[in-house]
Amino acid sequence: MSTIKDIAREAGVSIATVSIVLNGKGEERKISCPTQKKILAIAEQLHYVPNQSAKKLRAASTGHYAIAFYWATDFRIHYLARITLGIQQEILKQHKVVHLTVVPYAVDHLHEQLSTLQNEFFNSIIIANTSDKDMQYLDRCKLQYPVVLFNRESPYYSSVTMDNYGLGCKVAHHFLQKGLYHAAIVTHNANLPIMKHWTRGFLQTFRQAGHPLAPTQILRCDTHARSAIHLIQRLYETNALPRAIFCESDVLAHGVLYACHELGIAIPQELEVFTMGINTPAVNDYAIPSLSRIEIPMDEIGATCLRLAVELIEKKQPNPTVYYIEGKKILRNSSP
């Protein structure tokens, strides 16, 4: 790969002159037009590619940061707007120029994106929605630039996360305190890492209270509301409805509400519903009935990820640094 030294040697000028011209400051520094054209022509002949790492460091020293936000291309794309709103609001609070690039990747294939040279353009990256396979790759390769994980944890990288096991416990305690022992959990077939923590906390809390849930009370759906609708219809037809349901997605919870309305199942009198509130609060507050939930503050997590990324770039925090965000319990009509 050619360098500015090669260009300077071919053009018969100093390295400083080549640098000035390649950075577009030839006119400002009064470099003659013939010399500028000669340098640019030689750079093209030698297939010169600028050193992006060096440019990145120079930009960072002036408070100009380029940050990549890796987001999986699956059903969770619907949550991206809420998160990026939080990131944008944090960018506006920063007295710096922050360029944010959303980089899509396929679940289990994060390595295909990270192995490209595009990360040479970024001062830091934020990674969300990683699968177990993606996390194994990250822990194995130990990336050397600042990385912030979104609601994941690793001994090698900084993260903004929640006590996801504890959130599952919190929902279980809510049902147990109300004497709702005949409960069930509705989760995704996708077997997402966060949901596994929610499930484990919920099941273990019931088990420790002396009311273990049978395997038949762990109900799986795909990621669409219609799957939850069909599930409730089957339970109703077989007289197998529980007294309370914990939906690990508010999309599934809305499917449960719809099915109950169509079947004439009274909520909360016959069935109580509790969910994880990932959508915007209004979506769940104006459901009929309104949904009780653990509010997952996606915008706050996004904003904190951006703030931590900048702190790591500026070396104001050591790596790894972990920030924990609280999930608020909100009681509404579906499980008062």
Structure commentary:
- The chain is α/β, with parallel strands linked by helices and 336 residues long.
- Helix content is 43%, strand content 18%.
- It has three domains: 47 residues, 434 Repressor (Amino-terminal Domain) (Orthogonal Bundle), CATH 1.10.260.40; 126 residues, Rossmann fold; 132 residues, Response regulator (Rossmann fold, 3-Layer(aba) Sandwich).
- It has a six-stranded parallel beta sheet with strand order 2-1-3-4-5-11.
- The longest helix has 16 residues.
Task: Please tag this protein with its features.
elongated; Rossmann fold; 13 helices; 3 domains; 434 Repressor (Amino-terminal Domain)
Runs with pLDDT <50, length 5+? Answer: none
Radius of gyration: 26 Å
Second rung of CATH, namely the architecture of the largest domain: 3-Layer(aba) Sandwich
Domains counted in the coordinates: how many?
A: 3
- Sheet with the most strands, sense and barrel status: 6 strands, parallel
Secondary-structure element string: HHHHEHEHEHEEHEHEHEHEHEHEE
Summarize the structure.
This protein is 43% helix and 18% strand.
Topology:
Elements lengths: L3 H8 L3 H8 L10 H13 L6 H10 L2 E9 L7 H14 L3 E9 L4 H5 L9 E5 L3 H10 L5 E4 L7 E4 L2 H14 L5 E6 L4 H16 L9 E4 L3 H13 L6 E4 L2 H14 L8 E6 L3 H5 L6 E4 L2 H16 L8 E3 L3 E3 L6
Parallel strand pairs: 1-2, 1-3, 3-4, 4-5, 5-11, 6-7, 6-8, 8-9, 9-10
Antiparallel strand pairs: 10-12
